[in-house]
Amino acid sequence: MNKDWSPAARVQGLGTSVFTEMTELARRTGAVNLGQGVPELDAPPVLLKDVSAAVLAGSNQYPPAAGFPALREAVAAHQSRRYGLEYDPQDEVLVTTGATEALAAALLALCDPGDEVLAFDPCYDAYPAGARFAGARVVGVPLAEDGDVFVLDAAALRAAVTPRTRVLMLNTPHNPTGKVFTAQELAEIAALCREHGLTVVTDEVYEHLVYDGGRHATIAALEGMRERTLTISSAGKTFNVTGWKVGWVCGPAELVRAVGAAKQFLTYASGAPYQEALARMLDGVEEWAAELRSTLQRNRDLLSRGLASAGLRPYRAEAGYFLQADIRAWGYSDGVRFCRELPSRAGVVAIPTAAFNLRPDAPPYFVRFSFCKREESVISAVEKLVNAA
Ligand SMILES: *Cc1c(COP(=O)(O)O)cnc(C)c1O
């Protein structure tokens, strides 16, 4: 052991995550992996061809730090077309290395040490890590259960605001629950942010994956919200290209400028050929996404029915890649133990929702199953779960 060295406080406890552990368990046991949200589905062929062509044509050097103008224009057009929100591609849109870098850069740009960031619990694990890197702290606001869905607990949200609160992190559609925040909920959140002068960072990487004819609504479109909101999205989930890491953030110029100041010293710029191809693809996203949604919705229905047959009570996923299930009928109360034993018991891998929990007193009996897989994988997992029940 080298005693001259120890990890800095900001990375302590961020070691091997349960995602790594479960992915390794799936590899070792050959179990069907419904753990990590890695799509088994194909990307649009025209997009793949376009990237190859861009590489061969020499698009292999640093793009501009803010991203290629063509992609920034395509993102601005997308926000205008879908949400009626106008952003200047010149200084109100910034291309990032995935939504992950946008999130980290936004938290670094907005938070000083000691600040508090509100996030709904459970939440995507990059939020508490990003806040910590900025010296800030995420405060978990529990989502309440209502039948088979999760809902905003407005009283809990109000109670969580302190004089140190600077940012509210929103994620809709939500990972890990598959919840879509309703118009009423967004209005309540927006009112609170206006009242307390909070900046909103909204993570909308599943914006195209709302099922059952539902439609994504963005908080930036509400009265008085554009000026205080950074909206983040990414190509990964929309086009089944999670390995490309092309994301973007839209917001008022001064906020985007601050994010860009942090971002330039994280990666500066990345993904030149991907950016070029995505700039051309984004205009056609609606047609592509309609097809992807119908595939994913079918998978969701198969998985949801299968979990119910296996006695693992599923919650309704209105969007995204994931379903929550309550494991107590199998005699477990601890999702971590359940997930460690599931590969040998049933030949399936899932992720304990505890990996997304901010509060130590969050219910431990939820497990997340992903359905962004080939239909055969979902069918096979369901058979195995039913047999093991
Ligand atoms: C997958 C995911 C991300 C990461 O997006 P990248 O573009 O791959 O960095 C961010 N937020 C949520 C909620 C996600 O599920």
Describe the fold and architecture.
Helices cover 41% and strands 16% of the residues. It has 2 domains: 9-43 and 287-388, Aspartate Aminotransferase, domain 1 (Alpha-Beta Complex); 46-285, Aspartate Aminotransferase, domain 2. The longest helix has 25 residues, at 285-309. The protein is of the alpha/beta class and 389 residues long. It binds pyridoxal-5'-phosphate (PLP). Pyridoxal-5'-phosphate binds at residues 37, 98-100, 124, 171, 175, 203, 205, 234, 236-237, 242, 245, 247.
Q: Could you state the order of secondary-structure elements as H and E? A: HEHHEHEHEEEHEHEEHEHHHEEHEEEH
Number of domains: 2
Q: How confident overall, as mean pLDDT?
A: 97
**Which stretches are poorly predicted, pLDDT < 50 over at least 5 residues?**
none
Count of separate DSSP helical elements: 13
Please indicate the percent range of residues in DSSP E strands (runs of 2 or more). Answer: 15-25%
From the spread of the alpha carbons, the general shape counts as globular
Question: Assembly state here?
Answer: single chain
For the largest beta-sheet, the strand count, sense and barrel status come to: 7 strands, mixed
- Name of the CATH class of the largest domain: Alpha Beta
User: What's the CATH H-level superfamily name of the largest domain?
Assistant: Type I PLP-dependent aspartate aminotransferase-like (Major domain)
Task: Quickly give the CATH architecture of the largest domain.
Answer: 3-Layer(aba) Sandwich
Separation of the first and last Cα atoms: 46 Å
Radius of gyration of CA atoms, rounded to a whole number: 21 Å
* CATH domain topology of the largest domain: Aspartate Aminotransferase, domain 2
Bound molecules: pyridoxal-5'-phosphate
Give the total of beta strands: 15
Instruction: Give the helix proportion (percent range).
Output: 40-55%
Determine the structural class based on helices, strands and strand pairing: alpha/beta
Strand order of the largest sheet: 2-10-9-8-7-3-4
